Amino acid sequence: MHISEKEIEIRYAETDQMGIVYHANYLIWLEIGRTKLIEDVGFTYAEMESQGYLSPVTDISIQYKAALRYGQKAIVKTWVEEHGRLRTIYGYEVQHEDGTVAAKATSEHVVVKKDTFRPVSLKKIYPAWHEKYEEIKKREGYGVRN
C-alpha cells in the first residue's frame, strides 16, 4: 500500500468566525491529496482530461475529529482504499503536525467520457494506471491508524 503525503499551510482565509478551518476546505485538501497521489505513482489527471476523460466524485464522506486552526499545518495522507472495474475509492487522513487525526475521509470516483459522461474502465483506457492502483491499493489489515 502506498500512502502519499502533502503538507498544507493553513491560511487565515480558510478559517471561520470561530478561528477553525471551515469544513468545506477539507474537500479542497482531499483533491490536493488525490492529485499528489496520482502524480506520485506516475500519472496526471490533466493528461486524462486532455485525452477526453474525467473522473467525477460520486460520493464523499468526512468525519471531523479535531479542529485545525490558522497558523498550523495540516498533513493530508491519501491512498487507494478500493479499486474495481469502474470505481476507485480513495482514503484520506488529515492530521495535525503531531499526528493527531483532524479528519478521516473517503471519496468515490468513476472515469467517464468527457463528451457523454458514460462510465469507462480505467483498465481499458489506461492499463498501466489500473495496474499501479491494483499494486498500491489497501490490503486487508494494512492502513493508517484508527
Automatic annotation (TrEMBL):
Pfam families (alphabetical)? 4HBT_2
Entry keywords, A to Z: Hydrolase
Top-level taxon of the source organism: Bacteria
What CDD domains does the record tag this protein with?
A: 4HBT
Q: Which SUPFAM superfamilies match?
A: Thioesterase/thiol ester dehydrase-isomerase
Q: Which residues form the signal peptide?
A: none
Membership in a protein family: Belongs to the 4-hydroxybenzoyl-CoA thioesterase family.
State the protein's name.
Thioesterase domain-containing protein
Q: Which species is the source of this protein? A: Planococcus salinarum
